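hey so u asked for the seq, here:
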Amino acid sequence: MSSLVTEPMDMIPYIGLLLPEVKKVLVDPIPEVRGVAARALGSLIVGMGEQIFPDLVPWLLETLKSDNSNVERSGAAQGLSEVLAALGKDYFDQILPDIIRNCSHQKASVRDGHLTLFRYLPRSMGAIFQNHLQAVLPAILDGLADENESVRDAALSAGHIFVEYYATTSLPLLLPAIEDGIFSDNWRIRQSSVELLGDLLFKVAGTSGKAILEGGSDDEGASTEAQGRAIVEVLGRAKRNEVLAAVYMVRSDVSLTVRQAAVHVWKTIVANTPRTLKEIMPVLMDTLISSLASSSSERRQVAGRALGELVRKLGERVLPSIIPILSQGLKDPNASRRQGVCIGLSEVMGSAGKHQLLSFMGELIPTIRTALCDSTQEVRESAGLAFSTLYKSAGLQAIDEIVPTLLRAMEDDETSATALDGLKQILSVRTAAILPHILPKLVQPPLSSFNAHALGALAEVAGPGLSSHIGTILPTLILAMDDEDVDVQSTAKKAAETIVLVIDDEGVETLIPELLRGVNDNQASMRRGAAYLIGFLFKNSKLYLADEAPDMMSTLITLLSDTDNATVLAAWEAFSRVVGSVPKEQLPTHIKLVRDAVSTARDKERRRRKGVPVLLPGLCLPKALQPFLPIFQQGLISGSAETKEQAAEGLGELIDVTSEKTLREVVVPITGYDFLIFVKIIIVPWFHPFF
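ran it, structure tokens below
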């Protein structure tokens, strides 16, 4: 109206009547009506100047924050965009920071209103707004992940408008931001970014992107060669390859909506999938490897699924390209990318058929062998998983060509640590298959400190899988526990301790007989070491060993008459720990067993020392009676009449083979006055020297 009069200022008397009506129309439910009202406001500002409407911009900004409805906020956004265009660049530069700040306001309605404003600014401001895209895009991307659906829709709508208006003029600015969004951890951002990327590519290719593509093969899409050339001309071949690689990867996204969006984009802009994949393969593999090494578990999963799908669908056509790229990737100085290579190898081998992989064993086996000796722990762990997958296809060939190399590397001081960890990784996934190949090398006498350490380290990984090999490992380690080299002693002892603790309930059936054989061995070092391990097992194991205690107690008591003093001490300490593991209420049930064992040890000592008073060496040690007393005490206090008699007689027999010095140390505190009187009355013949 102001443009129709000769002097716009003649409109001033009517502003009071006109402006309220325009404001009402601006929040009309019909979008077209709102659009007309918005343009009218812009025309009034252009024709009459800002000073005539001092309250207009504040009112629009306040309505932009309204809680009432999307319609009001949308009308205010549209009107404000026209007004800002009329006010010019300087005013817009001044107000833009506040607009961007309100896009992250705590109230959803405020975020929605200000993001909606960006939907209209490109239309009203054109090139002026284009200069601010870099500042605005982060707010749009944040809005795409908003928890409020209305805010997400507003951000996506603004993104579509940005692409529509600036796809060609601001491509270098828009494309990187959209690409980053494709790899976001938030699936909503990924979905919106794929849709925006599709809009951008459709614009560049000159297609609407509205074709409906259902089912069918991936080999043929709806695109044409001309459209493909148009994309290459605008983006450049390198950037086009990067974009297509990203789209192909998210075709396997964990979110269905993202997958559907990516498949639609791919089929709309790619004419021939196999040929396109061949062209972008190096870039695609680079993208997948980087994603497989990502800290985001979801991104790793997406990349793994994409690689698996690629191999399953186009195996023989793509394997000759994929495997060399992966092998070469192990030379990358970035450890994360090397880890990504190993994960990629697992996916490829898991997805390809066995017959497809056979012709590539010459590359796969050396690659995994190298990765198992990598300097980085995470790479070796992923290489171990890759070995497990390789074993499914290559079988013994994988073991024969990898394990010996690792064993040789263990002999080199520079590579021994990484080679050992490589063995641990493959042992953790293929224990039964690997152990028979490793153990003969490691237990070969004389046992070195490193080999003893290796046995302990591998035992931690193999766990219960060691059970069937206890007879091979334990004797070697027990003998090494008495080695002249202190380092060998220490590492062998630690390894043996590790092994007895990793055994499970089923393995105990193998371990206990092996330890019993050890304490009955002809070599004192073997008896001593086995006795120590028995004590260590009963003190530290979390297994239920009460059923094994009787045999151990009987054997260890007999060992108290051993000719080797160190063995006697080890047997006494082990006996103390075995007794300590037995519940108090069960102790009286072992009285007869203890009496028989003491009798056996006494007879053994009597045959050795004819004509000399019989004292058991193990009962001449300081505090030697301490582990025995609880057994007899419980029998005397809580047992039946027969049990009490057995306990009293057994205690007398025990005292008979105990040295006088040892008895003097413990006779008063045996268990208290009542117990002492009871024993004195029954077995006074043994006690009379001390009362």
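Residues 583-691 form one domain. The chain is about 75% helix and 0% strand.
lmk if thats what u needed
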